[in-house]
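User: ABC transporter permease. Structure?
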Amino acid sequence: MNLSFFIASRYFRSKKKRNFITILSRISMIGVAVGTMALVVVLSVFNGLEDLVRSLYASFDAELKIESVQGKSFPVDPEWLLAIQEIEGVEIVTEVIEDNALFKYKDYQHLARLKGVSENYLDHGRFERGYVWGNLDLGSDMQPKAIVGRGVGFFLSIDLENEFELLSVFYPKAPRSAGTIDPNQLYSRNFLKPAAFFSVDKEFDDNYIIAPIQFVKQLLNYGNKRTSLEIKVKEGENIQKVKSRIRAHLGDKFSVKDTDEQHEGLLRTIKIEKLFVFITLTFILAVASFNIFFSLSMMAIEKKKDTAILFAMGARENLVRKIYVKQGGIIAFTGAIIGLVLGFVLVWLQDSFGLISLGIASSVIENYPVKMIWTDFLWTSLAVIAITFLASYRPALIASRVKPSDL
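Assistant: Predicted structure:
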């Protein structure tokens, strides 16, 4: 066995004297364990929130979205759409026209996003994560229907069971050079029958109404123009590879975004918050590890005669430094291992049994989402190693300066 490790472990496991130094070492170990456990749990919660955001947005957003780099719309034709459909890995191509419109139901009005989609929109597996009330049906050309965000439905007091009341949609017409005093000439108007409510996320629930693309095309007078195309990738295909193929086919005039890129700002915010939480908890862990510094410093004073004897027997300064650094490592790593295990168990229990509820009745999930990633355990371990070295080096340096004459 390595001599320095053997001596350090003997110091740590010594039961002859339960003095203040031993108690302080145990407190240091407990502090490291609690800090490590907190790091594992909190980072797992952020991972769970990030995954939850992705899954909720994936219920509404497309796997890939094509938009024009310049302008909010672009012309399409059947041959061009067919060429995109035939790209390897593409399963469904959905045409989209999206713009703001004014909605009126009975005496209530609300400004929201009108999203016109082609018939294959629901084939993407929409709203699999979330709630739906009513029938997901876009109707026909004779009777177009709307799938309404729950928040919009609340603002307008929409009653799905009322067969006679329709949803009015108003959209401003392009201004003409000749003035008019008839307000009816300033906007287009048409009617939709509410068919269902959806609830995915507040951002979508409060702002979106989905309708057939033919209805929206006529109301907005878009003709053959579309604001975006939504792509569903074939099962088993790599989304990034399919995205690269579409980009190569379309050129620089179009952008192709996956679900993360469509909400890049929000996901970046979560990652930044996770980073700052990691830094903050690591700093707290470092403060807790100051006990290691004090316990080793006091031990260096207490074991001064033992150290002098080692020097008299021919030990070098390097050996003494290693003893105290490894003593600090034993304290920290014992606490870290306990903390990692406890953190793993807590996260597993939360994931399996939902120990802590969100406490939000309207949420699509009941309990706090968690997800363990091995890199979090790695970075936590590296943080403990760095803190341990910094806390142990100075006491080890002081101990190595003891002289045999101090006996």
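The longest strand covers residues 90-105. The chain has a mean pLDDT of 85.
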